[in-house]
Amino acid sequence: MQKARREVAEKIKQVDIVFEVVDARSPESSRNPMLLEMLQQKPIISILNKADLADSARTKAWVAAYQAEGREAIAIDAQHAKRLQQLPQMAEKVLAEKLARKRARGIRNPHVRAMCIGIPNVGKSTILNRLVQKNIAITGNRPGVTKNQQWLKASGNLELLDTPGILWPKFDDQEIGMKLALTGAIADKVFTADEVALWGVGYFQKNYAEVLRKHYGLTDEQMQSRPADIVQLLTKKFAYGEEFDRTAVRFINDVRKGELGRYTLEVPEDRA
Ligand code: G4P
């Protein structure tokens, strides 16, 4: 952790702006709050990636909440990344004063140097590849692997560091861990499928009841049951005998594949 932290801090020194990549399905839980301490006053744009899988109303609410706090934010789907092309302009806008000073000193087309930073699996490499419109083999995409760094040209005057900065997922809080596990942001061995599925069923019961009911053909009465009872009911429905674990894994996979529709596991108000 210390080494990863030092590496990221070292890279941040070299850039004008940081692109923080988070998962739109859990924008707060998929960020490492230590990044803010490591910024050395560099500005940041938060990229809420995988917006194609997230609840669009909640994504809008998150972007608005971040912007209201004075932080630039954009929601994208890196796999079909039209909106990503707004990033160079956004970065220039955030850095307007600094760039104006450079132009006043006679630098005609000052470049903007940026890097993507985030926890594993949020889409940093995909975004980087899209921005530079290449399919570079991102080597050294692990903390602790050093190599000669290169700057890759994106559109406009934007240049990106060829390796993303990797932070570790932070889940001191059990609920954050559950969100990261349900979206697949952390390895399946960290929590049991059972506990993740129970948490997930509970969350969907409260927040996305209709899709849960419809997808698994549950009655209104069954929907009022405790999450553990719902898992039991489903196990029976799937004819899995006593294999509750199998049901848990199936539920988690259904959620991750988007079979239960688009979802977001937190709202800005949760932070209060
Ligand atoms: P990382 O560098 O932050 O570790 O993440 P990476 O780009 O490797 O992306 C992790 C996984 O997330 C990849 O899937 C990638 O295709 C997927 N992904 C990235 N951006 C988006 C997005 O906006 N929407 C969706 N739905 N998926 C996204 P994978 O299954 O691990 O690999 P692959 O099957 O794409 O090769």
Task: Describe the protein's architecture and organization.
InterPro entries: G_CP_dom, GTP-bd, GTP-bd_ortho_bundle_sf, GTP-bd_ribosome_bgen, GTPase_MTG1, P-loop_NTPase. Keywords: Cytoplasm, GTP-binding, Nucleotide-binding. Residues 1-169 form the CP-type G domain. One of its GO terms (molecular function) is GTPase activity. Required for a late step of 50S ribosomal subunit assembly. Has GTPase activity. This protein has helices at residues 2-13, 34-38, 56-68, 87-94, 96-104, 124-132, 174-183, 193-207, 209-216, 220-223, 227-237, 244-257, and strands at residues 17-23, 44-49, 72-75, 112-118, 151-153, 158-161, 165-166. By secondary structure, it is α/β, with parallel strands linked by helices. The chain folds into two domains: 2-166, P-loop containing nucleotide triphosphate hydrolases (Rossmann fold, 3-Layer(aba) Sandwich); 174-267, Orthogonal Bundle (Conserved Hypothetical Protein Ylqf, Chain: A, domain 2), CATH 1.10.1580.10. Strands 1, 2, 3, 4, 5, 6 and 7 form a seven-stranded mixed sheet that branches. Helix 8 (193-207) crosses helix 11 (227-237) and helix 11 packs across helix 12. The longest helix has 15 residues, at 193-207. The model has no long low-confidence stretch (mean pLDDT 92). The structure holds guanosine-5',3'-tetraphosphate. Guanosine-5',3'-tetraphosphate is lined by residues 49-50, 52-53, 77-79, 118, 120-126, 164.
